[in-house]
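Slides due. Your pick:
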Amino acid sequence: MREIIREFFGFGELGYTREPEGYMSWQHLTFVTVLMVIMVGLAVYFGLKYKHSTDSEKNKVLIWAAILIDGFELVKIVLHLIDSDSFLAIFDVLPLFLCSIQLITIPLAAFTTGRMKEASLDFVSIFGVLGAVLGTYLAGNNYAAYPVISFTNVVSGITHSISGFAALYIIISGMASMKKKNIPITYAILTGFAVLAYIANVFGDYNYMFLVRGDGTPYDLLYSLVGGNAVLYPIGVMLLFFIYILAFNLIFTDIRTKAGKKAATEPEEAVTV
């Protein structure tokens, strides 16, 4: 039993001794598909359940999402520090990936008010599902390096799924506003994290927000396109983020507007006595 536990957590100098099943292996795809089914199922259930509830009732689900995603991440960081026996190891697990921003924005969406809450809700809506897909199905950096059923991949899968759940729940329950005036805040949040990630990458051998290279993710396509140029590549990554934010906002607003017009033109059902 002790060996099973050690192998699951990857403790010790040897880390994981099992051979990784491989990126896009049936084990990888099965595991992440189960997570995605649970994610979507819970989001639809709670989203429809609280769709017509008060804002306070809707917010309770987000509070739990914030507690769970940060709780899992904190456990990962603590165990990593214990295993490495050095506080400096915290720099290896800084929350500076695109998906990691949800560790901040989901709590902001749950615990703040006013414009900051609106912008945070929109940020989670825009990047939550994208992050869930990138961090599960397309996470070649993880599933090519570690066994599928390992602490690293299980926690990563859970936290990315919580991000996707929160995004879908916000949209389905009607909490997303997508106001144009909040787009600059969304850009500011993303840019702030990107600057911190870039600084960390410069002063250490890291690849936060994949601003240095693709590492087996779809970013490899852009990296190859610009020939690995150290200036063009990170600029290209940020441009893709900005374009995605704008496109998501426009499409979401268009769909909501058309749905509203359709609902307004549909005749009300006759009431019989």
